[in-house]
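Internal QA ticket QA-208
Title: Verify multi-chain structure generation after dependency bump
Assignee: T.L.

Test input:
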Amino acid sequence: MKALKKVPKSKIVYAFSPKHKPAEHVKPGEEISLELEDAFGGQVRDEKIAIEKLDWSKVNGATGPIYIEGAEPHDTIAVRILDVKVADKGIIAVIPKQGALKEKPFKAKIKVVPISGGYAHFEREKVKVNPMIGTIGVAPKNGEQPTGTLGRHGGNMDVKEITKGATLYLPVFTKGALFAAGDLHAVQADGEACVSAIEVAGEVTLTFDVLKNLSISWPILETEDCYAVLTCGDSLDEACSLAVEEAVKALMREHGWSFEEAYMFTSLAVDLKINQVVDPKKGVRAVIPKRYVSIESFHVGDFRH
Amino acid sequence: MKALKKVPKSKIVYAFSPKHKPAEHVKPGEEISLELEDAFGGQVRDEKIAIEKLDWSKVNGATGPIYIEGAEPHDTIAVRILDVKVADKGIIAVIPKQGALKEKPFKAKIKVVPISGGYAHFEREKVKVNPMIGTIGVAPKNGEQPTGTLGRHGGNMDVKEITKGATLYLPVFTKGALFAAGDLHAVQADGEACVSAIEVAGEVTLTFDVLKNLSISWPILETEDCYAVLTCGDSLDEACSLAVEEAVKALMREHGWSFEEAYMFTSLAVDLKINQVVDPKKGVRAVIPKRYVSIESFHVGDFRH
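Actual output:
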């Protein structure tokens, strides 16, 4: 049996960029494991450290990039998330002027959160863990994007459903795609209200497929029952309009419906959900049950009908 | 056995107002049934009618108001939804310059949707019904509010979880509360993207309780597992900030946590969800599992700790 390829957390980038040299190459279908540093770059070891003393150039890194053999611009890669393992200790922080309540006066605070028995232990309460990948994406179309932001290339999307068993479809803009992942969360609610979740180090195991006949406009997440279009904008309202537009187009392609019919159906069967409200761009997902669309419905091209 | 009180759909109002004469009076715990007209005021009988020919003064009505004995300003009423029955035919419409894609060019269109066997039948597809109350509220604090809008008094909130089995807590601003409900939907997704859902006539059966020692800032929905704070704002972002603020305050009261701790915990355990993106104000809900709060956590007053 061939040894699983492993990428150590020392292979860290702070931007998604077509100029980066690959940390590793993989073939479609080949399993690879990435070791991930936590979003604070491992700088927070206890609750005594002052937030303002952190080296912010070492925050929000991602492991990679991974060159996927055969991936070319206009293709789509399917990232299958086989496993997400997190460490037994995470960190959550509030930072003044950050998060959904950034207008309120409050102090910086860091909390170390033990993780055991499938729960994160916060004071006397516990929250069931749901290990997820906060930052996941490819080199963008134009220039480079810091790993702390998000866009059509993926990035810091903070979607709590990007977890073990899910498949994330990402558009390819650069030969080899140049994939990277970081910002593991042991658990995060939709919204990530305070700007951080339980930030944790860990390891993810993935495979990649290259879909040559599929071009997509935004990342698409496939879960057991649904496809979700992951959009972002300067406001949640903008992100929602973009998500509805993609859902309507997919339904038109799949069913041969008019714009008006697909728009109606979206109102009935497509849930608009919040990913996060705290990153440089706000993110939402339009969640469409699989009975109504297939991944091919998201192909940007002529309508099939 | 005493006959169930029934309010016919002819008892319709187009505003929540402290000036309205009650259509009926009920005692706490007394069952009452309200017959509801559909949101188009029953004007759409087939797909041939032109949207612009509708009498818009007859749209978005609510049945009521109901005077709840013993309810006084600063109290809270608990509206227990015992049943929501819908007719076997609904209507959905798209209207130019309305909905999440109001900037796009499209035509007015009306579709009559048959409802049978627990499904709404849309073209060759079907969507499982989830009968819900779109408009539900009380007379507001100041002046009157059209039944088409929403606020701290409830109103046109379009929350898909306001359905059979749920309990809605509403602040009381006027003696008797002056409750009304309308805008039934056979099914609606989170977002109500196109501005309408499957608009349908029907009947709701309710009881009311008066909570004398509870004052709340926003409507609170209780479902089997969760409490949800229902806020609204000019943007989704504003609605989210308001919802997070209420969640943080509830967690502080319940657990004796600092603002910073409650803000952190909100990021882990409180899902921000979209109600609708298409009404005069955008609405969200902050969903908090019952293991972390009780209805008393939402009482506006001194912290218990």
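Spot checks passed. Residues 90 and 200 of chain B are 5 Å apart (CA to CA).
Status: verified.
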